[in-house]
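Bit of a strange request maybe. I'm writing a small parser for structure token strings and I need a real example to test against, not something I typed by hand. Could someone generate the tokens for this chain?
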Amino acid sequence: MKSPFNRILYVGFVLLGIYQAAVSKDYMQAAASLGIAMAFDPFNQEQKWQDRPIWQKAVLIIHLALVAAMFGFGIGLNDK
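Reply from user aminoacidic:
Good idea to test on real output. This should exercise your parser:
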């Protein structure tokens, strides 16, 4: 299902996560927003993981690493 609605939600949650991390310095909320963005896969969701191009896999893996980093920042910086 190639839905432009999924892409809009994906980009919206990514932008919200970047705003929360960069401006608000709320890394836990940024991790949550970026994690929710992953639920709205911007690529063809009917395509199997093995059949996806390498660049699409890389985008999604880097996105997942960014979510983990924001979660780590949120835990590490609030550990006082």
